[in-house]
Amino acid sequence: MQNTIKQKYLILLAGIGTGFEYYDFVIYAFFAKFISYNFFPNNNYYLSMMATFATFGVAYVVRPIGGILFGIMGDRYGRKKILTTTIFLMASSTFLMSLTPSYSSLGIVAPIIFVFLRIVQGISYGAELPGSLTFLVEHISAKNRGAKCGLMLSSMGIGVTVASFISYLVTHFFTLEQMNLWGWRLPFMFGGLLAVVGYFLRRYVSETPMFVAIEKYDLKKTVAIVKNNCKNILYSFGCAFFPACLVVFGLFMPTYLHDYFNYELPPIYLASTFGHILNVMLLPTLAWFSDYVGRKKQIIMALIIIMLGIWPLFKWVSNENSLALWGFILCYHAMLAFLGSCYFTILAENFPTSIRYMGIALSYNLAQIFSAFIPMIFSYICKNIINPINVSFIFIALALLAVFSVLMINDKTGKKLV
Fold it and tell me: Fewer beta carbons below 10 Å: N end or C end of the chain?
């Protein structure tokens, strides 16, 4: 009974921190329109938005730096120290974003400061999710590993749900002029304060028993283990890339639906809020299901459903009515939950304890780099090349690549980690 309570407490602590950090990381995407106005002024709206999305992508590019750097330190010095460090970096950078003067006040210095803070966010979050996942799987039993990880991962959905709901509130109650002047700063300020709470909670967690039990860190031995796991890193990257693209597109979705299908932002944010709530509700149940059918089988099933359903879904939203908007967003998040419920867990199961933190961080964050520029690429494609509906075929092609990678990974569902 005491062990069950301890596991629930650990899941809560890991999840709260991840949820708070994810809020801070994604709030940028929800307010891209206002960030563009304040920090990348240009007579051409399209060019301003491209600069804003490029800055969004920069945070993803530096994520592997944070993942590798803190991953090595986490594998050497322990998971706890790194998790408290990363959430402190995220809290401070997000709060400072809310205070950064605009281009009209500081000129070119303003976007430079903002980009720097976004880079700090990227470095921090590059280590956050791999660290939380490593911390959790090393504390829990193999029997229900998927279900417990699903509960932790649903906290990401809670983070983005809060971000989406806050976005709805401020855009609903403040005028466009107020949003451009100062309203967009409030969610960043709120996010910084949230992460501070997570920092103080994490100071009281204990180190993982699996990390304590491994031999003292040996650089030569670690390098040899990394070399032996190169294929695992490659296949894990392939497994993580497509879900990463779906997640990033989900963040870009308000701008996509507003610019190409003429939906208003408040109803988009409201529908997105309920989409994320649906995601949070489905994740634990579907993750629990993966403990019984196996991680690989479930991922393959999810990929097939997405390949069959993604184009009709994009076709539906082009009808430009309320039912289409809500149906598109809810179905999209349901498919994302089905896929996301087990692919994180399979990454953790793919590496030994001595390099688990770094292995997850490297493969996951490399996938994030390439997915980061989905908003910029899609904006260019939709404006210059094809009908916005047909970007769905890009997702189908990426899903096929994911199928190959998943087939190459050994399924360790229910097996003890080493």
Answer: N
Q: In 3-state terms, what secondary structure has residue 221?
A: helix
Q: How confident is the model at residue 6 (pLDDT cuts 50, 70, 90)?
A: low
Residue-wise pLDDT for 290-336, tens only, equals 888 888 899 999 999 999 999 999 999 988 899 999 999 999 999 99
d(CA 280, CA 159): 10
Can you tell me the distance from the alpha carbon of 106 to that of 88, in angstroms, rounded to the nearest whole number?
27
AA identity, residue 333: H
Over residues 243-261, mean pLDDT:
85
Contact assessment for residue 79 and residue 131, using Cβ atoms and an 8 Å cutoff: yes
pLDDT over 90 percentage in the chain: 16
User: Which contiguous run of DSSP H or E holds residue 43?
Assistant: none
First to last CA, the chain: 26
**Lowest mean per-residue pLDDT among 23-32, 85-94, 350-359, 377-386:** 377-386
- Tell which CATH classification among 3.40.50.720, 3.40.50.2300, 3.40.140.10, 1.20.1250.20 matches the domain 2-408: 1.20.1250.20
CB contact at 8 A, 154 and 283: yes
Closest CA to 203 of 16, 414, 410: 16
- For the chain, which residues make up each domain, given as ranges? 2-408
* Upper half-sphere CA count for residue 218 (Cβ side, 13 Å): 7
| Dihedral (Cα; 8, 13, 16, 21), 10-degree rounding | -140
Q: Are 265 and 32 in contact (CB under 8 A)?
A: no
- What tokens does 409 get? 């990974």
| Cβ(74)–Cβ(82) below 8 Å | yes
Distance of alpha carbon 320 from alpha carbon 257, whole angstroms? 9
Is residue 73 packed enough to be buried (19+ CB in 10 Å), middle (13-18) or exposed (0-12)? middle
pLDDT digits (tens, 9 = 90+) for 362-416: 888 888 788 877 777 877 787 777 777 888 888 899 999 899 989 988 888 877 7
Report helix, strand or coil for 296.
helix
